[in-house]
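Ticket opened by: R.M.
Priority: normal
Category: complex prediction / small molecule

The reporter submitted a protein together with uracil and asked that the result be attached to this ticket for the collaborator who will pick it up next week. Submitted input follows.
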Amino acid sequence: MRMYDIINRKKMGQSLTREEIRFMIDGYTKGEIPDYQMSALMMAICFQGMDETETLELALAMRDSGDVLDLSQIDGRKVDKHSTGGVGDKTSLVLTPMIAALGIPVAKMSGRGLGHTGGTIDKLECFPGFSAELAKEQFFQNVNQVKMAIMGQTKELAPADKKLYALRDVTATVDQLSLIASSIMSKKLASGADIIVLDVKTGSGAFMKQEADAFALAEEMVRIGKNAGKKISAVITDMDQPLGNAVGNSLEVKEAILSLNGLGPADLMEVVYALGTELVLAAGKADSQEEAEEMLKQTIKNKTALDKFAEFIEAQGGEKRMVYQPELLPAASIQLPVTNTQAGYAAKIQAEEIGQASLLLGGGRTTKDSSIDLSVGILLNKKRGDFVRPGDTLATIYASSIDQAKEAYGKIVCAYQIQPDMPEKIPMIKGVVRPQAIHGGKAP
Ligand code: URA
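Result attached by the on-call engineer:
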């Protein structure tokens, strides 16, 4: 088999076989296939696409390029959750302790990632001592005892995807649906959970700006998961404005703690309940959506989710008392209000601009080695649909330097669009994709 022929066949619009896909993924992971040939193939895929079977085979080949976690030492059916990412997305911090409080084991692998804020692990590192660098045995033990653990993605997890994603990033070949779906799912499948819920975001702050693209991606990922033997569903959620009010690591952790105390912002909680319902139903703990949602709500009312969060932080070395005293979490020295000048309704809050402002403040990473200021960020005092008067505070900037605060100020002003009429309400939940509605694909 020759890589040249594989590139040529894809260039002509032909479907690649399982053997061809395995050959190119194995060869690329081992360094036997050079970047220039892989780049040519990725570009050919961007122009010609891949069918469902090829997409599934690519996901499976990348899954098998490294360790596939065997979670059989953990009792019960393990759940995992993945978000395609957005601004202010602290859903995992709220949802996972709620699920664990219901006795459903959460075995989650998370990344740090590049972006406007850190990833879930960076956020959790706001608790001094917290570590996600768990040995596998420790991870299994924590899930068995606490019912939840979060572990950093190891180098051995889907190494083919790691290498390929870095290549796609610099060859303008990221935005191809089959490549995205197989990339995300290769890591989820390698993480070993039995039940997966995907939060596929759509809107100005999301990877998938158009709703139709978000649904198409969700369907492709659910199809892959189903054919790989997982219980899986995807919820398509709004990311046209930041989720909740807080953007920035410690601010988001504080908002997550507020949410676990029953004071969560409505939009965030709607997403949490929609995703949680999918997990509770898939785990067989409830017979109806209403029952599942009620069970989740109880974990907030009776504070079992809050206590579970504290238990989890402690089990991974973090200072548990900060869950009950969030004022002790990292706090920025400067607070600068962003003042409104015009009467009207907040019609749009460009999530991407707010994300950029967070990045300017030092709350995110521009390269994988850059450090993060956990204390900085933006608190949105006004959200879409709120009426604002001149002089009202639209948002509050939390900064470590006044120059950075001033730079972020301009971005935040630009992010808000004020108009005389009340904007139409945009639903948070655009739909749910479940395997029953998916056809095609091929059993592995
Ligand atoms: N996230 C991933 O993990 N892979 C992609 O291809 C795109 C986003």
